[in-house]
Amino acid sequence: METSQTIQSPGSTHVGTLFESMPFTKKHLFAGFVLFFAFIIEGWELMMIIFLSPSIAAEFNLTPVQVGSLIGAIFLGMIPGSYLAGLILDRVGRRKTIVYSLIGFGLVSLLSSFSVNFEMLYTTRLLAGIVLSGAINSTFPFFEELLPVKSRGKATVYLSAGWPFGTILAVGVAMLEPHLGGWRVLLVISSLASLWAFLIAKLPESPYWLASKGRDQEAKAAIAFLSEDQIHVHAETSLQISKVTKGSFLGIFQKNLLSVTLLATIVNFAFAFGYWGLYTWIPTLLQQKGLSMSESMGFVALSALCQIPGYVAASYLTSKYGRKKVMVTFVILASVVGFLFAYSTTIFQLYLFNFILGFFSLGAWGIWNTWLGEIYPTNMRGAGFNWGVGSQRWANALAPSLIGFVIGLGWAFGSTVSFIVLFMVVTFITVFFIKETEGKALD
Predict the structure, then answer these.
(1) Is the pLDDT of residue 3 over 70?
(2) If DSSP states are collapsed to H, E and C, what string results for 84-113?
(3) Can you name the residues that pair with 231 across neighbouring β-strands?
(4) 8-19 pLDDT per residue, tens
(5) pTM of the prediction?
(6) Cα-based distances in Å from 443 to 145, 149, 252, 293
(7) How far apart are CA 306 and CA 166, in angstroms?
(8) What is the CATH classification number for the domain harbouring 307?
């Protein structure tokens, strides 16, 4: 049984030291549950428009190029949104950024349901990407700054599992679209996600961020709350974080962080391109193998189910063996299976290799989402994490168009998928050079 302790010091105590001795409590469990929903929102939003695009195209008489641009609109919005979120996150706080972002997203999503033409729908989807970035990109840094060191890797990887749940939800609801009143009704339902902001507002602000702003008393209160009063810091003890300059995008390119930023940028772009390039075109690619559109949607849903045990395995392994060893192993195996998937000759092989691919690639994503939030010091964490996510969004926006281009050139299924998998190869090579963070206190 954990015993209460009081930290008394005539000088100062590093915030990370307190999290080394902090127990994992029900307060952490509640925070994980609340923030988990942010990734259900992401999975829902990013996949839903793909499944609704046939109905939207029919109503507005869209060309394939317009459909592709509509799918990519939210990603284009997330590019400036990520950079804005990086600046806001380190200035106004983790919790407020997520709350305001979700509320703004709800309003824009509601407005999009009243679109009278393609131009209005495209614009509102673009705006949705800008405002939603604050919630999506802030969730991991926020959660990591609430967790004890010994639980941080395991718990944060579980957070990533919101993506497949959101994907499965999007597939299920999309199949019921005609019975629910059409795509406009589903966009109204999406806007209701903003109500989750009221639960997020009940979470404490990050003690790391509070300490970085000199708000020691609030940070101490948050630590006592998270530890369920098992850790108290004396009123005269000052809290410290690593001394770095004020968070900014220029700061993450300073000499001591430059190599970290360059490596993380490559991983973010290559890994996102490899994943999104495949799954945005998977219905079309599967039709080359003889599956119908409805069968392809079922294929995506089953693939998402296989991603969940991948997260569970990654969560267990990363807390035992560290980020680097597990992620490198998972991405190498995903690459090998990706090539096998590319040259599958039967439907059974398609399902088998894709399920294994989903297991390893999404497990690796869970580790990377955790790792990316740990490699920067507190005052740079928001800028660094959001710069990385911005790189992902560039890949998200470019991959559908580039893959569509090579498909248009007549590339076969095997050639197209192999080209996509090459980006995963780049990923695991780059990961070798990033520092390990498992078991280490945040700076």
Answers:
(1) no
(2) HHHHHHHHHCHHHHHHHHHHHHHHHHHHHC
(3) 5
(4) 555 788 888 889
(5) 0.82
(6) 10, 12, 14, 49
(7) 14
(8) 1.20.1250.20
